[in-house]
Amino acid sequence: MKISLANIDVELGRRSEKRVILNDVSLNLAAGEQIAIIGPSGAGKTTLLHTLACAIAPSRGMLLIDSTSPWKLSKASLHRLRGNIFLAPQAPPLPPRQRVVHAVLAGRLAKTSTLAALASLYKPGDAAAAVAFAALAKFRVEDKLWHRCDRLSGGERQRVGLARMLASDTPLILLDEPVSALDPALGLSALKTIQDEATARQATLVVSLHDVQLARQRFSRLVGLKAGRIHFDLPASAVDESTLADLYGAEFEAASGTAQSRVAEIADDEIASATAMAIAEAPPVARCF
Questions:
Q1: How far apart are CA 138 and CA 158, in angstroms?
Q2: Residue 262: CB partners within 8 Å, gap ≥ 6?
Q3: Per DSSP, what are the bridge partners of residue 12?
Q4: Which range has the worst mean pLDDT, 125-134, 136-145, 176-185, 259-268?
């Protein structure tokens, strides 16, 4: 999918308390392109991903997906478009009592009939279970196929969410900190699997990462987001230490990996709360990732 953002503003919060989270953001992605979004905590990375997923409508500017404005479509057409977008939050919202096999197969719900979807969730057939098993195997968690989601560790939950992405077969993949709960070696392996899958299906891939060194290692194009604005959009080879210091400021030492190889991102409370409220108000199809 080809994406174009032109002078986008996104405001979140109640009417009397609205805050501008994204400000004058312009960004273009070719179909099949893969980019990483980096930036300090509270920069608006999660909000940008939800905007691209058509879960949050811009308050100003234009979003085009394959030359179509999502927010000018009919409800039915917008529903179909969202079915072609996969968004994985940092902490996948897996129902505690749900079996892992069902959690993975949920990635296919947007493209199946209601009857087939219900049948799959009640008792997946051998072919469907095989799809889930193969997806889980790529993230080394296939032994959890029939486990309940509340029995998984944080890293296992994250990998189950990524396996759901493999099962979804969508042309636009949006991932928010997809390897934050994994150790460096496993995180690198998982990210390679994600990129290989995106390449195989010629999908456009947008990933937010807090690990700057991982972003520089795996992506050829980096977009730096700071205070809701595009701070830079550069080839990874052009993003040097001074560029990162300017982007992160006081966070630079941790974000660049000089103090530690992996730092958990602490989201701004007000932004996180406003984003959650906006997502909760979105139609169900926009929240089933």
A1: 13
A2: 180, 183, 184, 187, 210, 211
A3: 19
A4: 259-268
**Overall average pLDDT of the 87-97 stretch:** 89
The owner of tokens 């991982």 is 214
Alpha-carbon radius of gyration of the chain: 18
First to last CA, the chain: 18
Beta bridge partners of 176: 208
Confidence (pTM): 0.85
Q: Let me know how many helices (H) and strands (E) the chain has, helices first.
A: 11, 9
Q: What distance in Å separates the CA atoms of residue 255 and residue 112, rounded to the nearest whole number?
A: 41
179 Cβ contact partners less than 8 Å away, ≥ 6 residues apart? 158, 186, 187, 188, 190, 191, 209, 211, 214
Contacts of 116 by beta carbon, 8 Å cutoff, 6+ apart: none
Do 253 and 261 meet the contact criterion of CB atoms below 8 Å apart? no
Judged against a pLDDT cut of 80, whether residue 257 lies above it is answered with: no
Measured CA to CA, the distance from residue 280 to residue 272 in angstroms comes to 12
Q: Outline where the chain has alpha helix (H).
A: 45-52, 75-82, 100-105, 114-122, 126-137, 154-168, 184-200, 212-218, 241-248, 252-255, 269-280
